[in-house]
Design a protein that fits this description.
This protein is α/β, with parallel strands linked by helices. It has a single domain (2-15, 24-253), classed as Glycosidases (TIM Barrel). It has helices at residues 2-11, 44-52, 66-71, 81-84, 94-107, 128-141, 158-161, 166-177, 197-212, 233-245; strands at residues 33-36, 57-61, 75-78, 114-121, 146-151, 182-185, 189-190, 193-194, 216-220, 250-253. Helix 8 (166-177) crosses helix 9. The longest helix is centred in the C-terminal third of the chain and has 16 residues, at 197-212.
């Protein structure tokens, strides 16, 4: 994972222009996040390269790495079993969760590098009530820290969603987890072309974001895997500028 993040920083060198090239004050990640999706590296040099590549969030970090992330001028979402190490369908008693969260408060508190806490990627709808309960306990203890849950793309079955429709799935996140942004992925670069799926999902998320008054972040394709194509400056630009045109408030590189 560390190697992947290092390579990502190199890949972004030609496509993510440092924010200070145009404005003396880079965008705050709370206003517009530019994030590497995945485990945050621990090495200061790799964090420095990520900052130079134009990122303002290093991804999902360990609590013990927060000072290094801060010193590099970055932020991150803390990934810690006290926040995300649960069976979401069968949570322990609230008091047990609160004891674990109290430990996080003592360790992290108001650390400026911590945007919030990573909870889960692409959850089934049946898990959202459990995610919402832990998110609420975290927010009660640390009101300024955000929960992070990333949603599946629209082109999956209702059985995979756990809801009758994609609209219901997205609105469930808003209503149960109260995450202040919508984060989703839809990797659509295949065999040298951008599939219509990418734009259809952008249209849906934009509409639901407006309906729920929730800004959205797009997690875009930044590495070749499965049948997805090798990234290039052109494909980075296409995905990023399309997201901006639809009003996106965050870019995440996976």
């Amino acid at each position: 994972m560390i190697t992947r993040c290092f390579l990502l920083s190199l890949l972004l060198g030609g496509s993510a222009i440092p924010q200070t090239a145009f404005h003396p004050q880079p965008a705050s990640p709370r206003d517009f996040v530019v994030m590497a999706w995945g485990g945050s590296p621990s090495e200061p040099e790799q964090l420095r390269l990520m900052k130079e590549a134009g990122l303002n969030s290093s991804g999902f970090c360990k609590a013990e790495d927060l000072d290094r992330v801060r010193d590099a001028g970055l932020t991150c979402f803390v990934s810690d079993p006290r926040a995300n190490g649960y069976d979401w369908a069968r949570l322990p008693a609230d008091e047990e969760i609160r004891v674990k969260v109290a430990g996080l408060v003592r360790e992290i508190g108001t650390h400026p590098a911590a945007l919030g806490f990573y909870l889960l990627d692409e959850p089934h709808g049946s898990l959202m009530p459990g995610l919402g309960k832990v998110a609420a306990i975290l927010r009660q203890a640390m009101p300024e820290k955000w929960p992070y849950v990333n949603l599946v793309p629209y082109r999956v079955s209702p059985e995979r969603l756990g809801t009758p429709s994609y609209d219901a799935y997205v609105k469930m996140l808003v209503d149960t987890i109260h995450q202040p942004f919508l984060s989703y992925d839809n990797y659509s670069l295949v065999n040298g072309e951008m599939l219509d799926y990418f734009y259809t999902n952008l249209e849906i998320i934009r509409r639901l974001g407006l309906e729920t008054k929730t800004p959205f972040w797009n997690c875009i394709l930044a590495n070749a895997h499965f049948n997805y194509m090798e990234p290039s400056d052109a494909t980075f630009h296409l995905q990023v500028y399309s997201t901006l045109a639809y009003g996106g408030r965050g870019i995440q590189y996976f």
